[in-house]
Specification:
alpha+beta; 7 helices; 164 residues
């Protein structure tokens, strides 16, 4: 239900800002979360892609599960009856990070602070950082998958961004 980071962004935005939000405003906030920089620094194409992705895929799914309500005529998104449960689920998922994943996440945060690439970490740099911690390739794959599922990282192009 919240396997895609963009759905989690929608839930987070509606929890953070006053509901309702126009879909274009919601798309702007989500693309800022995804790219980790100011809206002015994000290409217009990326903003348009976010809007289209939300409109065609993620908003209908979240409406279907009762997380949000969408007024297509007014292009407004509001919190639905199931949103509180999803907030709780997201909080518990983040808190249930195992010790191994916590150490991996700390190492990735340290790697980002020393990397001046501007995109977070490349996937190759992420894998290298985790291998340098002593993890084999299978463990690296599992850790990256776990961190993505729990909402701590998401993929943007060939980079991994950490979510605070």
């Amino acid at each position: 239900m919240l396997s895609h980071h963009r759905r989690r962004y929608v839930i987070e935005c509606l929890g953070h800002y006053e509901s309702p939000m126009s879909l274009p405003d919601l798309a702007d906030e989500c693309v800022v979360m995804e790219h980790g920089c100011a809206l002015d620094d994000i290409p217009a194409e990326a903003v348009r892609d976010m809007y289209m992705s939300l409109y065609h895929s993620h908003i209908p799914h979240l409406v279907e599960i009762g997380a949000i309500e969408y007024d297509q005529e007014r292009d407004l998104v509001t919190a639905g009856p199931a949103i509180a449960e999803l907030h709780t689920h997201m909080d518990l998922s983040r808190r249930s990070l195992c010790d191994t994943a916590e150490r991996a996440l700390k190492a990735l945060r340290n790697a980002i602070s020393t990397d001046d690439g501007g995109c977070g970490l490349t996937i190759a740099h992420t894998r290298e950082t985790l291998r340098n911690m002593g993890y084999d390739e299978d463990a690296v794959r599992q850790l990256i998958r776990h961190l993505e599922r729990t909402g701590y990282i998401h993929f943007v192009d060939d980079c991994i961004r950490l979510v605070d």
